[in-house]
Design goal:
The complex is a heterodimer of chains A (about 230) and B (about 60).
Chain A lengths: L1 H14 L1 H21 L6 H10 L6 E5 L5 H9 L2 E6 L2 H14 L4 E4 L12 E6 L9 H14 E12 L12 E8 L5 E8 L2 H9 L3 E9 L2 E8 L5
Parallel strand pairs in A: 1-2, 1-4, 2-3, 4-5
Antiparallel strand pairs in A: 5-9, 6-7, 8-9
Chain B lengths: L17 E9 L2 E9 L5 E5 L2 E2 L4 H4 L5
Antiparallel strand pairs in B: 1-2, 2-3, 3-4
Classes of the chains: A alpha/beta (about 230), B mainly beta (about 60).
């Protein structure tokens, strides 16, 4: 019965799935330049992950939802090559500019986190940071986790993060959908979709995917999980 | 786009290999052309050196 309900939900969601994901693309295209200018520094949680899992200068990295490539830049220092993927062409342009300014190499791709254009087992180290919560349906979010598991090589590692109800900003204890305004320099506001995760919901969603959780933590109001592909031997 | 990237790219829909067609080069960089799925035939444009591999239903231009 649960499966029937899931199928019914999938059908409802799939009707406007593409349109809603394209909306996310349009939102970030509109705010790309200003957004990128406020995203200067890498997150310390990501720095720690990269230090632990990408230190020998070999392998292929992936920054999934790369935005201005601040985390691709970290990966580029420690890996043979790095792919930066984002839904927004505007954000990819800011990533390209940052790579030129700072002299690091990143292969940029416009793509959808829920339908990755990357070969199975092609990625050794991935960061999927502050992106999952922008996918507008649970179907898309779960698909993106399964896609991450598919592209990770055996023994490959990924860091997944999402905004959570544990943040001071929220009073809710259950996960919920919301929009959060981005204010452009002229005062114009642009709504951005978020699914705010309850920490146990975040863990359950990972457990329901083909990823395997190695470690989960809460930090600065975000849920973080270090994951590998199920069945990975390393 | 570096041509060696093709080794790890695939069609976002059916995950089959992509073939580079009508490539335009600037030195060693591929700056234009199309990536075509060897299975379903879907063509993905390379726009100013960045391949647009969004699924077709997300690729359409923003309505005015």
């Amino acid at each position: 019965m649960a499966e029937d309900r899931n199928r019914a939900r999938d059908r409802t969601e799939s009707r406007d799935e593409g349109t809603r994901r394209a909306d996310v693309r349009d939102t970030y295209d509109r705010i790309a330049d200003h957004f990128a200018s406020t995203r200067e520094y890498a997150w310390p949680e990501v720095e720690a992950f990269v230090e632990t899992h990408a230190s020998d200068g070999t392998g292929v990295g992936l920054d999934l939802g790369c935005g201005n490539c601040r985390h691709a830049e970290l990966l580029a220092a420690d890996l043979e090559s790095v792919v930066g993927l984002d839904v927004s062409r505007g954000l990819l342009e800011t990533g390209h500019a940052r790579a030129l300014e700072r002299g690091f190499a990143v292969d940029l791709i416009q793509g959808d986190a829920a339908a990755l254009p990357l070969a199975t087992d092609s990625i050794d180290v991935a960061v999927y940071v502050a992106t999952l919560h922008h996918l507008p349906t649970r179907t898309a979010r779960t698909a993106s986790l399964d896609e991450l598991a598919r592209v990770l090589s055996p023994g490959g590692r990924a860091l997944v993060s999402a905004w959570s109800t544990a943040h001071d900003k929220f009073e809710e204890t259950e996960g919920f959908d919301t929009t959060i305004e981005w204010t452009l320099p002229g005062g114009e506001t642009v709504d951005r979709f978020y699914h705010i995760y309850a920490p146990d919901e975040f863990e359950a969603e990972l457990a329901g995917s083909t990823l395997e959780c190695c470690e989960v933590e809460l930090s600065s109001g975000n849920c973080y999980a270090t994951v590998t592909a199920t069945g990975s031997n390393a | 786009m570096n041509e060696s990237l093709l080794d790890i790219l695939c069609c976002p829909l059916d995950k089959h290999d992509l073939e580079l067609e009508d490539a335009e080069y600037d030195d060693d960089d591929v700056v234009g052309g199309e990536l075509v799925c060897t299975e379903c035939g879907e063509a993905y444009p390379i726009e100013d050196g960045i391949p647009n591999l969004l699924p077709p239903d997300m690729r359409e231009e923003t309505p005015a």
